[in-house]
Amino acid sequence: MRGPRLGGVGQGQLRAGLVGAGPWAKTVHAPGLADHPGMTLRAVWARRPEAAKELAEAHGAQAVDSFDELLDQVDAVAFAVPPAVQAELAVRAAEAGKHLILEKPIAADLDGARRLADAVEAAGVAALVVLILRFSPMTREWLDGIKEAGGWRGGGARWLSGALLGGQYQSSAWRHDSGALADIGPHAFDLLDAALGEITDVLAANRTDDDLWQVLLAHEGGATSTATLSLRLPIQPTVVEVAVYGEHGYRTLGRKPGSAGESYTALLDDFAAMAASGTTSHPCDVRRGLHLQKLLERARELAGHGK
Predict the structure, then answer these.
(1) 51 and 122: one domain?
(2) H or E element: which one contains 253?
(3) Are 33 and 26 in contact (CB under 8 A)?
(4) Taking the C-alpha atoms of 177, 182, 185 and 190 in order, what is their torsion angle to the nearest 10 degrees?
(5) Does residue 306 have a pLDDT over 80?
(6) What's the CA gap between 255 and 36, in Å, rounded?
(7) 294-298, Cβ contacts within 8 angstroms, sequence gap of 24 or more
(8) Cβ atoms of residues 261 and 74 within 8 Å
(9) Average pLDDT value for residue range 178-198
């Protein structure tokens, strides 16, 4: 099954629906979808109707009463909800022929991720994962230089934050339940994978009682890397750094403050082009999400935390 033809209020615009009305939906998804020239934000649905109404009205969209009503009005669905909720609803959206913008991790567990990836493949729709750092121009330039130079022996990622101690995400139940590995692990693993070659195995993983993760990864070609992750360290501002080392020295990548909006616009550029052309393959597509889910599952197993 092929995805829907583009339809909307503007020539060639993709009609988008947004599921969720939390902090990330408000600051990134809704303004990005509403302002992008290839998209129009048509409908918003959330479990809190008043929040959906407020967000929709702020961006010229309509708050709808059900997920089915949203599906009836759109060509594409962006999700800003917990992984377990996303996995269930995104399968329904794919089966309805809707293109998907998925948050990471794409599901709460590996079985859910496989079901979602299979549904996307069967429907023939575009599905991009919001690995937001990958869409930053700074990241793309860094990765291009890494690939051109070659000869990298190893690397590491550090993401150290107090996001669950205070601020807009401190009341996020799924982040408290699933911890740093699920929330920021996909970003770290994705960047290490893109820089050093495909991650083929998780060699070791440890989680402390306060959810500080140390993960050792093996890459295709022989490189190894480490990831250190926490959302419960009193660090301000957040530390985000990826590094590689080898015959060309030591190269680091940080995160530019306030770049999420710019990166999301770049994601929507790719997404709109995929939907218009019928393309389903992309470095950050749903298969990437499934690959990362496998790594998360393996790390949990090695740390003795199962699913």
Answers:
(1) yes
(2) strand 249-253
(3) no
(4) -170
(5) no
(6) 23
(7) 294/110, 294/113, 295/185, 295/189, 295/199, 295/202, 295/217, 296/105, 296/181, 296/182, 296/185, 296/186, 296/189, 297/109, 297/110, 298/201, 298/202, 298/205
(8) no
(9) 97
pLDDT of residue 9: 45
User: CA-to-CA distance for 305 and 17, rounded, in angstroms?
Assistant: 35
CATH number at residue 103: 3.40.50.720
Distances (CA, A) of 167 to 79, 135, 161, 171: 21, 25, 11, 9
35 is in which domain, residue-wise?
14-132+261-285
Phi, psi of 82 (to 5 degrees): -55, 155
Inter-CA distances, 243 with 104, 186, 271, Å: 22, 16, 28
206 and 59, same structural domain? no
Outline where 61-209 has alpha helix (H): 67-73, 83-95, 110-123, 137-149, 173-196
Q: What is the mean pLDDT of the chain?
A: 94
pTM above the 0.85 mark? yes
Nearest to 79 by CA among 101, 50, 94: 101
Amino acid at 303: A
DSSP state of 31: H
| Residue 228, domain CATH | 3.30.360.10
Cα–Cα distance for residue pair 224/216, rounded to 1 Å: 7
Q: Encoding tokens for residue 101? A: 């913008």
Backbone angles phi, psi at 108, to 5 degrees: -80, -20
Q: Buried b vs exposed e over 202-231: b needs ≥16 C-beta within 10 Å?
A: beebebeeebbbbbbbbbeeebbbbbbbbb
Task: Count CB atoms within 10 A of the CB of residue 163.
Answer: 21
Whether 148 and 54 share a structural domain: no
